[in-house]
Automatic annotation (TrEMBL):
Keywords: Hydrolase, Metal-binding, Protease, Signal, Zinc. Gene3D superfamilies: Galactose-binding domain-like, Zn peptidases. Residues 1-21 form the signal peptide. GO terms for biological process: proteolysis. Residues 428-546 form the P/Homo B domain. The keyword tRNA processing does not apply. GO terms for molecular function: aminopeptidase activity; metal ion binding; metalloexopeptidase activity; serine-type endopeptidase activity. This is P/Homo B domain-containing protein. It comes from the Bacteria. Belongs to the peptidase M28 family. M28A subfamily. InterPro entries: Galactose-bd-like_sf (IPR008979), M28_fam (IPR045175), M28_SGAP-like (IPR041756), P_dom (IPR002884), Peptidase_M28 (IPR007484).
Length: 546
């Protein structure tokens, strides 16, 4: 599912995520107070879809990590630290500032660190946080508890990074250690913050067990302001939600709430039993646990409801985009060379069109230059030297006679106002000849009654340019003795002159224009026959231009 980004124009519409048909439409303002900031007129950017396929990919990685480490990702084991490394490396590659925060004091002895990731930008004094515990119990790989929340917030973080929208508030993500031992990692993190840092955190959203196979749609502290956006999302897709009674004070949001921070979150449920009423509104099986593999070895990648998982990610994205993403995208452009390559002989000039496109926001001025790769003796000229993104410029690369043959990757730099991007152009100097004139300089005696064949191999491509031009040079005291023919590569014979005449003239230099329908490449043969007795001579050379 992919939502279309739509820019809404008014403050009222800033409360709406406008989406394409068949995807959820949030057509009402989220209930609850605490949305004063959104009274400021700005345009809202629709939240993107968070790919459940990609979340699934992260879950598979957690599964393999557990399998390689005794079937568990408990906080004190190598399966936990390998999980931290996996998440950390994805975040770093996407542009996050990550920190491993030691889970001391207060955690189990040997517990691995919490992982904190900050998305650069937004108001640092207004931090919106989302978190999930990354550790499992010893009994199993912990794919629903809590690979699900960990993978989901990771993919949401990567989606935010991919979009690079303008941020109003600062967004931070946390992966907690040692939750299964009593919410210890998150408590250590919160206690380790100065009161100033703590007061900057305006909201913490927790995601613990968001893919339960017989799950429900539970929201923590459902009637508070912190829950408003999550609620609004589920309402928009016509899914009813309930207070997360089962999970109250049993996950990391409690650590934040105890420190006076507004919290909410999403869960699909653990070992408690689904009621008949819940099965009626949500589907699934009444009288069975939401997650029958809770804290056991069967909490594997088979123990996941994609629907619950998918919706939790889209709910978080909705909350983040509603609260922390500004109305305008980062302005950006792209640049390309078309054609992307060209061939010239040394001394020749290659031209290509440097095109630019506005990829987000409004157009911007782009200054063009060659950053690297020009061969020696060559000069590059842009016409014009700067364009508004969306327009193009002609790049001419003039080589000189001294430019060495070779293949050069010429990097064209486009320096814009908000970003710089490069295009490359591959310039080949030399290579396939563009020459279409050839000569055979070998001398052939022209004796009585003898035919000589003087061949030329043409490397010119395409069709011969008709008429081909033939020049024959030689000596013969009676050129009237000579019949001269040209044989084309296809074998066709063209008579340039017949023998015969009433008086003798010297051969000398003769030019012929010969209409042909021939390919240019291959063997062209000049065939000279001395058809009469007495006078003889010499074929000096002949040339052909095809
Ligand atoms: N998953 C946490 C644990 O390991 C806390 C928890 C228990 C929970 N029941 C829940 C979280 C229900 C969400 C919903 O015990
Ligand atoms: Zn859990």
């Amino acid at each position: 599912m992919r939502r279309t980004a739509v820019l809404a124009a008014t403050a009222a519409m800033a409360l709406m995520g406008l989406v394409a048909a068949a995807t959820p439409v949030i057509a009402q303002a989220p209930p609850g107070a605490g949305h004063g900031a959104k009274a400021v007129a700005r345009t809202a950017l629709a939240p993107p879809d968070v790919s459940v396929t990609n979340i699934r990919g992260h879950l598979s990685q957690f599964q393999s990590i557990a399998s390689q480490n005794g079937g568990t990702r408990r906080s004190t084991g190598a399966g936990y630290t390998a999980s931290v490394s996996y998440v950390e490396q994805k975040l770093q590659a996407a542009g996050y500032t990550t920190r491993r925060v030691a889970c001391t004091p207060g955690c189990s002895s040997g517990a691995g660190p919490n992982l904190i990731a900050d998305w650069p930008g937004g108001d640092e004094n207004q931090v919106i946080m989302a978190g999930a515990h990354l550790d499992s119990v010893s009994a199993g790989p912990g794919i629903n508890d809590n690979g699900s929340g960990s993978a989901m917030i990771l993919e949401t973080a990567l989606t935010l990074a991919a979009q690079r929208p303008t941020m109003t508030k600062h967004v931070r993500f946390g992966w907690w250690s040692d939750e299964e031992q009593g919410l210890l990692g998150s408590r250590a993190y919160v206690s380790g913050l100065s009161s100033t840092e703590r007061s900057k955190i305006k909201q913490y959203l927790n995601f613990d067990m968001v893919g339960s196979t017989n799950g429900g749609y539970f929201i923590n502290n459902i009637s508070t302001a912190a829950a408003a956006d999550l609620r609004a999302y589920y309402t928009s897709i016509n899914v009813q939600t309930e207070e997360n009674v089962e999970g109250a004070n049993r996950s990391d949001d409690a650590s934040f709430r105890n420190a006076g921070i507004a919290t909410s979150g999403v869960a699909a449920g653990a070992s408690a039993t689904k009621t008949t009423a819940q099965a009626q509104k949500w589907g699934g099986t009444a009288g069975r646990a939401y997650d029958s593999c809770y804290h056991s070895s069967c909490d594997t990648t088979s123990n996941i409801s994609d629907t619950h998982l998918d919706r939790s990610g889209d709910a978080l994205a909705y909350a983040i985009w509603t609260q922390a993403v500004g109305g305008t995208t980062q302005r950006d452009f792209s640049i390309n060379a078309s054609p992307g390559s060209g061939t010239v002989q040394a001394g020749g000039t290659a031209t290509t069109t440097i095109g630019t496109t506005t990829t987000s926001g409004t157009a911007q001025r782009v200054n063009l230059s060659v950053a690297s790769g020009l061969p020696s003796g060559a000069t590059a000229t842009f016409n014009p030297t700067s364009v508004n993104s969306g327009s193009s410029s002609t790049l001419s690369i003039a080589t000189s006679a001294t430019t060495p043959d070779g293949t050069y990757t010429v990097t064209v730099a486009g320096a814009g106002e908000t970003a710089s991007h490069n295009a490359t152009y591959t310039l080949s100097v030399g290579g396939t000849s563009t020459n279409r004139s050839f000569t055979n300089d070998t001398d052939y005696p022209l004796n009585d009654y003898v035919t000589v064949n003087s061949a030329i191999t043409s490397t010119a491509s395409g069709s011969a340019a008709s008429p081909v031009q033939v020049t024959v040079k030689g000596t013969h005291t009676c050129s009237e003795d000579l019949r001269i023919r040209l044989l084309g590569p296809s074998g066709t014979s063209y008579t340039l002159k017949n023998a015969g005449g009433t008086s003798c003239t010297n051969l000398g230099t003769r030019n012929y224009s010969v209409p042909v329908t021939q390919q240019a490449s291959g063997t062209w043969t000049l065939q000279v026959t001395d058809m009469y007795s007495q006078d003889t001579g010499l074929l000096d050379s002949w040339s052909i231009t095809v």
